[in-house]
């Protein structure tokens, strides 16, 4: 073993042919584990000069009763709903929360993790930034035995619990609704191509089209960086091309609202000429005119579930084996897509 | 001196007839102070058995490079703009921020302060909860020499720097605009009566009325707890009373939007029958129909100023004498009040 290398739980697990969470439980002296197994793991850890006990001990002794939360941005209604759900749940269970936002920046996300970890939070709830494509920073805290889970923007690379919403199914629901209204030439206004939700919602979009006998050839995807300026520009370019769809599905409500503003400026009737739908169910979507058809994401409930699950793990009510929770979305039909009464 | 009593800087200042910030500077060994003054204060502090140096020393030695921020709620566009301004500024200057929300609860606010202080943040930026009516928790951290400033929701009771927006002037501007449009019977939809901004905005409302020769008798204030349910109910009761105004000024945009929905449901034309205006310039206000006349608050700039000022104090670029900054608001006239072209 090279000098200065810090032994990870993963390496111990590999040597013994057990799972990482079994090693983790042995380190935490969990009563669920057979004493022989526990001894075998602890002995191996010692022989490998693994440095966990000290941190684990201090975590167990001096619980701060604080959870750390990292979200990409706070101005988003969805993430602030997540936080409300996390906070209400944590508070009921005697915990406070400290929040950091990554501003969609990978570097800021790493800095946030350092900050919250040195504040000795008992655990972390993390939603990844748009820029995060590598995961050493998460692997590092995982290896150090710092409890955390991920929500909404997650990665499969790290074996911790994850809570997501069913993006593909939500997109399927809303595009199927547009098809049910008689639309056949439906454009998808997507965020950046490599974004997880861009892809997932496209899956649902294509699935609904396929169900109505429309192939991928008959789909049409416009990309935007999600800024009001680009949303506007892409809409204008689409209109100027003369190749008009009979419906637009926008990846998130704010894009749909920006599209709506341009269509109205150009005198295009919604939904008669172009039907419109979004995704998120922001408060704004109910008050624009026409009111916006969208998909409701259970942001508050996601926060509640995330906090309860992490606290259940911390308090050893449930084992800390990684679990995946997928929350369902619901269609919210409104006037922007109502072609049939 | 009674046993167990912790001596405060205020008491030392009183004994010596100097200001609290002078004592604070002596404790921090500031080069701005004359050595004789410094010695006199330090001697007095010692004789009174004042316990500051230890904490101050440790703060100075182990700077965490983290600022703590406490806001009443994160779902508010205004506070999330504040936070963006604080974070961008802090990040540029090499600091990270940790955020807690009080959920408008006094107890939660106290818990947030405890949490952030035990995380050893270098300083705090605090916006008070709606419930906060006493200030021992702030006096306590002030006496312990923990650097902090207040923004938006502030109190005059604690001698630290404060950053606010000119609420009264903003309300004056928008009500004067309604008067300029020919409205003479203007109702004010106010939040809870004892809320600072309810009062300040009422001041501006009455000032504008007075300028047009309308006395307080000709004003009409409706109170709501700011929930959508009560905003709706108050509007319906006003309509059913038959005593209709020709304009409504709502204390915040979300109230104006709720009022707008009811007026439209009842077939009342905006602005022809009732003109409408809000305050805050939320993103929603630009996309409702008719677009909402409102007052723009510089939330992001407030955050920038707050963070820069606190960091200037921490880094001793400016003395930590309390200062008051008042940011100006601007009228954003839109269609909901446009009676004249």
UniProtKB/TrEMBL annotation, chains A, B:
Molecular function GO terms recorded: DNA-binding transcription factor activity; transcription cis-regulatory region binding
CDD domains reported in the protein's UniProt record: HTH_LacI (cd01392), PBP1_LacI_sugar_binding-like (cd06267)
Transmembrane segments: none
Keyword annotations from UniProtKB, A to Z: DNA-binding, Transcription, Transcription regulation
Gene3D superfamilies: 3.40.50.2300, lambda repressor-like DNA-binding domains (1.10.260.40)
Residue intervals of the HTH lacI-type domain: 7-61
Name of one Pfam family that matches: LacI
SUPFAM superfamilies the record matches: lambda repressor-like DNA-binding domains, Periplasmic binding protein-like I
Family matches, as InterPro entries: HTH_LacI, Lambda_DNA-bd_dom_sf, Peripla_BP/Lac1_sug-bd_dom, Peripla_BP_I
PANTHER family on file: HTH-TYPE TRANSCRIPTIONAL REGULATOR GALS (PTHR30146:SF109), LACI-RELATED TRANSCRIPTIONAL REPRESSOR (PTHR30146)
Name of the protein described by the UniProt record: LacI family transcriptional regulator
Species of origin: Aquiflexum gelatinilyticum
């Amino acid at each position: 073993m090279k000098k200065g290398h810090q032994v990870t739980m993963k390496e111990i697990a590999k040597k013994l042919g057990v799972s990482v969470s079994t090693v983790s439980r042995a380190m935490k002296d969990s009563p669920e584990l057979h004493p022989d197994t526990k001894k075998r793991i602890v002995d191996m850890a010692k022989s490998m000069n693994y440095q966990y006990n000290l941190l684990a001990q201090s975590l167990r002794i001096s619980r701060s009763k604080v959870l750390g939360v990292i979200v990409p941005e706070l101005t988003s209604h969805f993430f602030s709903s997540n936080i409300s759900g996390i906070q209400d749940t944590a508070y009921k269970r005697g915990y406070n929360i400290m929040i950091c936002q990554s501003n969609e920046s990978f570097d800021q996300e790493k800095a946030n993790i350092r900050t919250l970890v040195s504040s000795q939070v008992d655990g972390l709830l993390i939603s990844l930034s748009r820029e995060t494509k590598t995961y050493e920073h998460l692997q590092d805290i995982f290896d150090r035995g710092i409890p955390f889970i991920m929500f909404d923007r997650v990665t499969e690379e790290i074996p911790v619990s994850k809570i997501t919403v069913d993006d593909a199914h939500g997109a399927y629901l809303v595009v199927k609704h547009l098809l049910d209204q008689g639309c056949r030439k439906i454009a998808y206004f997507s965020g950046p191509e490599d974004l997880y939700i861009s892809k997932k919602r496209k899956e649902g979009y294509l699935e609904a089209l396929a169900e109505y006998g429309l192939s991928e050839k008959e789909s049409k995807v416009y990309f935007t960086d999600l800024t009001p300026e680009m949303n506007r520009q892409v809409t204008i370019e689409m209109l100027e091309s003369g190749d008009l769809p009979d419906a637009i599905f926008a990846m998130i409500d704010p894009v749909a609202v920006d599209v709506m503003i341009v269509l109205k400026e150009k005198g295009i009737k919604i939904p008669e000429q172009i039907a419109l739908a979004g995704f998120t169910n922001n408060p704004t979507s109910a008050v624009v005119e026409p009111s916006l058809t969208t998909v409701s994401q259970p942001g508050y409930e996601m926060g509640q579930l995330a906090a309860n699950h992490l606290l259940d793990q911390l308090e050893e009510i449930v084992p800390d084996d990684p679990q995946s929770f997928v929350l369902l979305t619901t269609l919210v039909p409104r006037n922007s897509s109502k072609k049939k009464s």
